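pinging the channel bc i need a second pair of eyes. not urgent but kinda urgent?? the chain im working w is below, pasted from the shared doc
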Amino acid sequence: MTREELSQSERNGVAVVEYIVPEFQRLPIRQKTMHAYLGTGDLCAEVHLSKVQFVAEDQKLFDDLLSTIRLLPDESAPSPQGQDLKNQCLAEGSRLYLQRKFEAAAERYQKALDLEKQQRTLSKNLFRVLVDNLSMSYMFTKKLSSAKETLEYGLTQDPEYPLFYYLLACTYAEIGKMDETLEQLRLAYKYRANMIPGESFPDLLIDPSFRRFVKDKTFVDRVRQMQQQ
């Protein structure tokens, strides 16, 4: 992938590398990526942040989060039980997801979700990220029924989050069910004002999940109507 606007800097003892990936598989994504490194003694940590459809106003999201990064004082690590295990599975799943190891990522994310079902402790936005990334990991590995089940559970807990509906539409589109796809897209557009701050609503007419429908006039006309509402 081509990288543009590469820069390196140091901010309050944190080394930072930033760049833009303009496209992926010939699709325009304009993904901003930031790698931040900090360390002490024999410990080094990396923080990886990224966002697609980046615009200049989004830089504050990166900078605000970067300003909160700290290394905790050296303490004995707690045993990975309960919340610790959930966080560990979530972190491992995210690392594997960014490495595009989707089958392994799904395994760790699913464990985190199973623990979350037992006791809800994640913040609303972190829960959304968990469900989003788990469902997409299943879609990337063609486990569409598992993706559908994950998103349907997410909607029982957060019924007004538009990307759950959007990803469910992607799942139905991959299966080939246009009526169900359109219904989920209708709901996604209905609740699109409830995106996480900094998120952008996807352009479904360039989303590969809908490739079998984008030449269907009925589908395109319905989508255009939704976009204008």
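so The first strand starts at residue 4 and ends at 11. and Residues 182 and 221 are 11 Å apart (CA to CA). — does that match what u expected or am i reading it wrong
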